[in-house]
Amino acid sequence: MQRRSRGINTGLILLLSQIFNVGINNIPPVTLATLALNIWFFLNPQKPLYSSCLSVEKCCQQKDWQRLLLSPLHHANDWHLYFNMASMLWKGIHLERRLGSRWFAFVITTFSILTGVVYLLLQFAVAEFMDEPDFKRSCAVGFSGVLFALKVLNNHYCPGGFVNILGFPVPNRFACWVELVAIHLFSPGTSFAGHLAGILVGLMYTQGPLKKMMEACAGGFSSNVGYPGQQYYFNSSGSSGYQDYYPHGRPGHYEEAPGNYDTYTAGLSEEEQLERALRASLWDRGTSPVHGSGTSWRSWCPHYHS
After folding, report:
1. Is 195 considered catalytic here?
2. Phi, psi of 73 (to 5 degrees)
3. Where exactly are the transmembrane stretches of this chain (predicted)?
4. Which DSSP string corresponds to 13-42?
5. How far apart are CA 251 and CA 77, in angstroms?
6. E-strand stretches of the chain
7. Largest CA distance in the chain
């Protein structure tokens, strides 16, 4: 185990500030555990990034399969951690409340592993199709592939409507695809295949057989169809919400945001946070390579692309 070198980690400080502003007691347990685990691995990485990142060469050819477990939990820098975990905080509060903690934990675990497997398949297929072995050496790290899968779930449970991406209204059902393209236009060093893998895993769950397979494997518990009202109270702003939960909502009723939503998003929607991150990447292109998305680099290089 290695301890990260001391220094001012502004992204980590900002993340912790948001977590405490929301209130630890107001964050569902699996979401909180996921945040804590990623922060712990950032402060105490089990291995250097080049030994924990995911690539076809390292996993398939050198049989280093532990990377499937390590790569989602390691981040390139504090801003990479911040944007991923700020997104996880938002998605986790909504999805864990809807799915229940046990099933959400199962979803996070399955998505973390399966996103890595799909990433390897994509990289292998592209390398073979283009006869370009460099794709087998391309190494990715970070939790953002899982976040793309969770975003597909969130959009599936909240169909209709529009989101604002870079100032343009985009229908929810297309938001993941637009963000996939936008991130890689503004931050070309990020892992396109890693994010695409997340979207595909999310679609496998919402449109394919993955959910039924998971339910069959779960045995004693399954996803919360008709989940009977788990309560989380967001009362740091003086009001409590989510007291009565209906998994599909009351007829004509839209779920309200938690009372302190603006506290941990700085008044921005998730898409507006993405827009800010993408714009920031234009200023940091030569210094800070990661803004809320997985980092990708050639494994023979000791650095990662900006």
Report:
1. yes
2. -95, 0
3. 103-127, 177-205
4. HHHHHHHHHH-GGGS-HHHHHHHHHHHHHH
5. 44
6. 138-141, 162-165, 168-171, 295-298
7. 60
Amino acid present at 214: M
Residues 6+ apart with CB under 8 A from 154: 91, 94, 95
> Distances in Å between the alpha carbon of 202 and those of 60, 256, 291?
24, 24, 22
218 HSE (CA, 13 A, CB side): 19
Q: Say if residues 30 and 38 touch (Cβ distance below 8 Å).
A: no
* Identified catalytic residue from 195, 223, 281, 296: 195
Assess whether pLDDT exceeds 70 at residue 281.
no
Question: CA distances (Å), 190 to each of 94, 100, 228, 270, 288, in order?
Answer: 26, 32, 40, 19, 12
Q: Which two tokens stand for residue 164?
A: 């604002």
Q: Is 17 a catalytic residue?
A: no
**Residue from 52, 87, 144, 236 carrying the catalytic annotation:** 144
pLDDT tens-digit map of 211-242: 999 999 887 666 554 333 344 333 333 322 22
283 confidence band (pLDDT: 50, 70, 90): very low
3 state DSSP class of 190: strand
